[in-house]
Amino acid sequence: MLRLLFPLVALAVSLTFLSPVATAAEDASAKDKCIKACNDCLRACRECIIGCDCPECEKTCLVCIETCRACVAIMEYDSPLMKDMCGLCAKACDECAAACRKCGDTPCCQKCAAACEACQETCRAIAEK
Questions:
Q1: Over the stretch 49-94, which tens digit does the pLDDT of each residue have?
Q2: Contact at 8 Å (CB) between 52 and 106?
Q3: Can you give the residue range of the structural domain that contains 115?
Q4: pTM, whole model, 2 decimals?
Q5: Domain for residue 118, yes or no?
């Protein structure tokens, strides 16, 4: 009976020790994806400000740029505020994407909206963990 129990106990112990490692790797991967998405969003918002004359679009892009910049810094510092900042960044990206989508078929606005939506998804994933 003990011979049958030992492998099961050993498996349970190994899974207990492996799951935090997998979770840490997943968290690092999610953070890396989010940092990349924030940086992509920053670039797209800058291009949108240069290429679009819409005041609403410009205002939301400026807010989005600053929020993404702060979000990247907070994530790089591994701050305990990371989840909160990612939640705020997701909101700023939502607003920016909505403003850019309203702007019409301007290529820079459509590119910006897509980048903001991608950033929002990665930020929201971290904020909701």
A1: 999 888 989 999 999 999 999 999 999 999 999 999 999 999 999 9
A2: yes
A3: 26-127
A4: 0.80
A5: yes
